[in-house]
Write a structure and sequence with these properties.
There is one protein chain. A five-stranded mixed β-sheet has the order 2-1-3-4-5. Helix 5 packs across helix 6 and helix 8 runs antiparallel to helix 10. The longest helix has 21 residues. The chain is about 50% helix and about 15% strand. It has two domains: about 35 residues, no CATH class; about 180 residues, Beta-carbonic Anhydrase, Chain A (3-Layer(aba) Sandwich).
């Protein structure tokens, strides 16, 4: 690999040329249009390319990514993305997407020290601690995957409780929060049935989705 990353710039030129050849005027149309219906909040893991997984083009999916797909009320970066997506772009769906084999979740599960990210992963450790008794009841080889799914449910619930989503619901705007998990082993997305469209649905949806997760690991 070169020091000036020429190979990436060359690949970009090839991609742009192929895209324009396949759909003439593609980039000029993008200049005047950004109308995504979906906000994807996922993990920063390089193996989880959001647009590719759902086969959507640029402009069709608004994306925010961080270590272990965390949504916390003190993260102004995530909240700013959510606010712009909901208030300005009028997205109708917010999808929290975790994935199997998540390194951040593993570090939280096993109390592994990784550096500055330890402070961020503390949020996932809170999820682990909240569900510790159930996780301890599982086989050791099940706990990592189970915590990945639990983390999705908890972060989706956090998204529902943000002022951004609560305010949207209060003014009658249609915003639905979803919790999904992506399987690195098969390339498939799974709906964890944490689907919430109103304030009153948050608690029952969370408990229904949590019961479904626990049933799968029984």
């Amino acid at each position: 690999m070169s020091t000036d990353l020429t190979e990436l710039l060359d690949s970009n030129k090839q991609w742009a040329a192929a895209t324009e050849a396949r759909e003439p005027g593609f980039f000029s149309k993008l200049l005047n249009q950004q109308t995504p219906q979906y906000l994807w909040i996922g993990c920063a893991d390089s193996r989880v390319p959001a647009n590719d997984l759902v086969n959507l083009l640029p402009g069709e999916l608004f994306v925010h990514r961080n270590v272990a797909n965390v949504v916390v009320h003190s993260d102004l970066n995530c909240l700013s993305v959510m606010q712009f997506a909901v208030d300005a772009l009028k997205v109708q769906h917010i999808i929290i997407v975790g994935h199997s084999g998540c390194g951040g979740v593993k570090a939280a599960l096993l109390d592994q020290r990784v550096g500055v990210a330890d402070n961020w992963i503390r949020h996932v450790q809170d999820v682990r601690n909240h569900h510790q008794e159930w996780l301890d009841s599982l086989r050791e080889d099940q706990r990592w995957g189970a915590l990945c799914e639990l983390n999705v449910l908890e972060q989706a619930r956090n998204a529902c409780q943000t002022t951004v989503v609560q305010d949207a619901w209060a003014r009658g705007q249609s915003v639905v929060v979803h919790g999904w998990v992506y399987g690195l082993h098969n390339g498939l997305l799974e709906d964890l049935q944490m689907t919430v469209g109103t304030h009153d649905d948050v608690v029952p949806a969370f408990h229904k989705a949590l019961a479904a997760v626990k049933k799968r690991y029984a």
